[in-house]
Amino acid sequence: PEWQLVERHGIQQLERLYTFSDFRQALEFTCRVGELAEQAGHHPALLTEWGRVTVTWWTHKIHGLHRNDFIMAARTDELIER
Amino acid sequence: PEWQLVERHGIQQLERLYTFSDFRQALEFTCRVGELAEQAGHHPALLTEWGRVTVTWWTHKIHGLHRNDFIMAARTDELIER
Questions:
Q1: Which ipTM score applies to this complex?
Q2: Phi-psi region for residue A27, left (φ > 0), alpha (ψ -120 to 50) or beta?
Q3: What DSSP designation does A64 have?
Q4: Does A66 touch chain B (CB under 8 A)?
Q5: Closest residue by Cα to residue A77 from A60, A53, A50, A61
Q6: Please, is A24 exposed, middle or buried when counting C-beta atoms within 10 Å of its C-beta (0-12, 13-18, 19+)?
Q7: Which domains does chain B have, with CATH numbers?
Q8: Which of residues 11-30 of B touch A (CB under 8 A)?
Q9: Residue B53 phi/psi, 5° resolution?
Q10: pLDDT tens digit string along B24-66?
Q11: A13, B43, B54, B63, B72 from B59: Cα distances, Å
Q12: A15 in the Ramachandran plot: left (φ > 0), alpha (ψ -120 to 50) or beta?
């Protein structure tokens, strides 16, 4: 599964699960997405577990999705492809 | 609120929310807890958001809590106190 549209507490969000072969790789990906978020000034929720990271984007200010969230989702994917 | 006992999908877990003044500090805490987890060979779920990290410990093998989870919770607290 790639990006999915989910609704949580009445807020539409973009969510994707990325899988890895261990905890360290998952944690490193979290850190990379975090750096991207800091650079962009737009911050996701990042759930890091053994071998998996769930990335969730939405725009806090509008309690939903903005075009910027789709851009950030695409940029998150690019971090994996490198 | 400090550590709370929660039950999720029938699995008892120890959970605590830590708050920070921005995303970067939250992300740095996540990385510190991740390093602790790697050293201990015991891995939590880490939910990183703007200004907050939710840490959840449980023992996958027994689908619940082991003494080791309480030790890891205490060691997570120590990372903040430093």
A1: 0.93
A2: alpha
A3: B
A4: no
A5: A53
A6: middle
A7: 4-81 (3.30.1360.20)
A8: 23-24, 27, 30
A9: -135, 130
A10: 999 999 999 999 999 999 999 999 999 999 999 999 889 899 9
A11: 30, 9, 17, 6, 11
A12: beta
